[in-house]
Predict the structure.
Amino acid sequence: MDEVHEPCSREYRRIIDRFHKTVVAQFNGHTESYGFHLYYHENNLKNPVAVGFNGGSIAMYSDRNPNYVVYESNEENFVRIKFRFEFLEKIF
């Protein structure tokens, strides 16, 4: 898996580095866990250039917490982001 993942990850980061003034956030999901990742330019590790948000999933696995995330941003510049979690009650 690493032989596929590492080149794809490297190229994705190069795209984020190159277009960081245009692409300031990425939204992903369906991983059964929530998290975020700060992206730094490869030549400047002091200031982040983008952020990646990873939403959860509504899949009903016994060891997971089904949820989804609602994101809201400023319509003028899309910079200020508010978000809230919605957790679903497990039904078994």
